[in-house]
Amino acid sequence: MSCIFCSEITDEQILVESKSFKIVFDIDPVQIGHLLIISKSHIMDIREINIPQFIELMDLEKSIIEILENHFSITSVSVIQNNGPIMDEGTHFHVHLIPRYIDDNFWDNQIVKEHKLSLQELKVKLNALAIKYKYFV
């Protein structure tokens, strides 16, 4: 299956673009104004983005959130990013920016099958990360 982000997005759909990313409206929006920041490179995971691209992505997210929150009557913005095989088939790395409202019931309809995860092991791994980067634990 070909990637819709690589082959099906038209110039007319692109609202704005940077060196590494393009911004479009989501074709199946959760909320009016739901945007996608899509990597121009066909990558599947944020770990494939280099540091300059990561900084560019964070700057785009920040700038778009400022526009949404400062110029529209929204409460906030949820930033959602999927990586790898969890993404919809036929897509690659992208970030969702979803306008939010206090009464939008965003989380009310989420039914998630819970899977076991060792929280103690996660704490150990995060502590090792803190030591590596000299974060305070």
Major beta sheet, strand line-up: 1-2-3-5-4
| Series of secondary-structure elements, N-terminal to C-terminal | HEEEHEEH
Q: Indicate the structural class.
A: alpha+beta
User: Mean of the pLDDT scores?
Assistant: 92
Number of strands: 5
Unreliable runs? none
Helix content: 25-40%
Number of distinct helices: 3
Overall geometry: globular
Which value, in Å, is the CA radius of gyration?
Answer: 17 Å
Q: Describe the main β-sheet briefly.
A: 5 strands, antiparallel
Assess the beta-strand content as a share of residues.
Answer: 15-25%
**Distance, first to last CA:** 45 Å
Fold and architecture overview:
By secondary structure, this protein is of the alpha+beta class. Helices cover 29% and strands 19% of the residues. The protein contains three helices and five strands. It has helices spanning 4-7, 51-71, 119-133; strands at residues 16-17, 21-25, 35-39, 76-82, 94-100. Strands 1-2-3-5-4 form a five-stranded antiparallel beta sheet, with helices on one face. The radius of gyration is 17 Å and the shape is globular. The mean pLDDT is 92.
Features:
5 strands; 19% strand
What's the structural blueprint in terms of helices and strands?
Blueprint: H1 4-7, E1 16-17, E2 21-25, E3 35-39, H2 51-71, E4 76-82, E5 94-100, H3 119-133
Antiparallel strand pairs: 1-2, 2-3, 3-5, 4-5
